Amino acid sequence: MTTITTERRGTAPRSTADCYRYLVDFSTCEQWDPAVYRAEKLTPGAPGPGTEFRVIVSIGPKRKTLRYRLDGVAPGERLELTGRGAGIKTRETLTLRPSADEAGTVIDYTGEFSLRGPLARAARFARPAIKRMTAQAMRGLIDALTVKTTTPRQGWASYLADRTLLPGEALYTDRGYFAMRDRSHAEFMDEANVAVTGATGGIGRTIAAEYARLGARVLLIGRNAERLAAAAEHVRGFAGCDPSKVETVEIDLASVAGAQSAGRDIARRAPRLDVLVNNAGALFDAYGETDDGFEQTLAINLIAPFVLTETVMAALVAAQGRVVNMSSGGMYAKGLDRTALEPKPADYSGLAAYARTKRALVALSHHWYRRYGDEGVVFNAMHPGWVDTPGVADALPRFHLLLRPILRDTRMGADTAVWLGSARRAAALNGAFVFDRTPRPTALLPGTAVKPSEAQSLYGWLRNKTGIDVHGLR
Ligand SMILES: NC(=O)c1ccc[n+]([C@@H]2O[C@H](COP(=O)([O-])OP(=O)(O)OC[C@H]3O[C@@H](n4cnc5c(N)ncnc54)[C@H](OP(=O)(O)O)[C@@H]3O)[C@@H](O)[C@H]2O)c1
Fold first, then answer.
1. Which of 122, 208, 260, 283 has the fewest Cβ atoms nearer than 10 Å?
2. Rounded distance from Cα 81 to ligand 1 centre (Å)
3. Of all residues in the chain, what percent are helix, strand and coil, respectively (each to 5)?
4. Which pairing describes strands 246-250 and 105-115: parallel, antiparallel, or unpaired?
5. Ligand 1, closest atom to CA 281?
6. CA nearest neighbour of 295 among 248, 338, 263, 331
7. Domains in the chain, ordered, with CATH?
């Protein structure tokens, strides 16, 4: 057996309490340690002595799974962890204390890595690799704990990739997520109210869980009581939050009255609404109509977010809140065509209806920004990349089968939706279409750019179609 020990120190510009809170859920290491592919808290509830984590580490092209246990904690001061995997055992300690000027926190890390078998025989290579990896992890941790204030801009490489369709789409996979330098969620939201639609599964449930971990009170919106209860349980277990901070709103968003009643219920429970994530969406194989007589893709992907957002607008204004509208990279395929938003059954194509409604949602987001931006509300549309969810498996089975190994998991798909609602600097992107925390172009193909006047007339059309009052106007 070979034992390698290493020590690292860093200073984070954050309070000791914040640093401890972020670190005690050690699964956040997937956000700051570049060697970690995925980490998961296995023990539901608030982390404490005995909490276990599964950590998948990338070593070159290989992945190694370690099971970590939080052995000892001195709240606000110290965390002791042991990790075990094939041929490796670790004992790691993180000690926190206020920096001399009391403006930050000094974080001391010590790691003892005991290697057996082939790993011990390769100690000559393992020693520098471990030293390098722990140094990178400490840098990543300090960066994760640093609240950034500069406005994110698109770099030239991703600008070029976006304009050349295939390389651009390659970044919709997990590659794109790992290409982002900052993947942390460390800006706590203890006083915030967040509402998430489509929170019973897929990307939406993960969005809700991450907001709850940041301390927000989260309202999960779904149409099925059992699935809602299961999602709420999952979110509480993941976040380890006060269980009363996770609430549910049961409603079918496919109806205008349903979306409006959900909005009224949310505004009653949260007169100051900090974040609304319009995440629910669907792609249907066959033509179908809702009870209101709308084609069902239109009803769920466009009309529901319109009605819900307008109904809670006063609560959003009161909180100077943010609205995140979940669109899709698929919207690049279509321009805004109001007539085509109501297809005839004979002309129906599921993919085209999906792309058109998602394009319209991007146009609507931008119009909302123009209309309500002065009232302090921030509007964004975004796309999550290609994400392995039940929705994709059902709607696009061949796509799912073919690309499954490189699809994003739901935390990767949820990342931008959480960042847009929680990060201080995301507020600077009001009105932008965002992918992987970066503003992106809304039109890549000729004839797909939307003029402000067209977006405005879409808005008027939605008002007429739904007959709902919009903020301050009957
Ligand atoms: N996954 C991707 O690769 C991808 C790519 C681009 C964009 N998106 C967008 O991301 C969002 C989430 O997608 P996902 O893949 O996570 O989808 P998903 O797995 O199908 O989940 C969709 C969620 O929306 C809810 N929902 C659907 N119809 C509803 C209705 N009438 N009333 C209330 N809730 C309803 C579902 O609730 P139930 O549990 O009741 O069904 C579910 O919670 C969608 O807007 C999708 O278009 C996804």
1. 122
2. 37
3. 45, 25, 30
4. unpaired
5. 45
6. 338
7. 2-144 (3.30.530.20), 156-466 (3.40.50.720)
Looking at residue 141, what DSSP letter applies? H
- Please give the Cα distance from 171 to 155 (Å, whole number): 14
Of the residues 354, 369, 372, 459, which is catalytic?
354
Cα separation, 402 vs 404, whole angstroms: 6
- Residues having CB within 6 Å of any atom of ligand 1: 198, 200-204, 222-224, 227, 252-254, 279-282, 300, 326, 328, 383-384, 386-387, 389-392, 413
Quote the distance between the C-alpha of residue 113 and its chain's center: 33
Quote the ligand 1 centre to 379 CA distance (angstroms): 20
Q: Map tokens 């706590």 to a residue.
A: 188
312-322 burial, b at 16+ Cβ within 10 Å, e below that, comes to: bbebbbbbebb
Cα 252 to Cα 276: distance, rounded to the nearest angstrom: 17
Q: Whose CA is nearest to atom 7 of ligand 1?
A: 328
Could you tell me the pTM of the whole model? Answer: 0.97
Which amino acid, residue 181?
R
The letter for the amino acid at 125 is: F
Of ligand 1's atoms, which has the minimum distance to the CA of residue 199?
43
Active site residue 354: yes
Name the residue with the closest Cα to ligand 1, atom 17.
391
Report the C-alpha gap between 196 and 221 in whole angstroms.
6
* Residue in 387, 403, 406, 409 to alter for ligand 1 test, most ligand atoms within 8 A of Cβ: 387
What are the pLDDT tens digits along the chain (474 aa)?
899 999 999 999 999 999 999 999 999 999 999 999 999 999 999 999 999 999 999 877 789 999 999 999 999 999 999 999 999 999 999 999 999 998 999 999 999 999 998 888 888 888 999 999 999 999 999 999 999 999 888 887 777 777 776 657 788 999 999 999 999 999 999 999 999 999 999 999 999 999 999 999 999 999 999 999 999 999 999 999 999 999 999 999 999 999 999 999 999 999 999 999 999 999 999 999 999 999 999 999 999 999 999 999 999 999 999 999 999 999 999 999 999 999 999 999 999 999 999 999 999 999 999 999 899 999 999 999 999 999 999 999 999 999 999 999 999 999 999 999 999 999 999 999 999 999 999 999 999 999 999 999 999 999 999 999 898 777
Measured from the Cα of 387, ligand 1's closest atom is 3
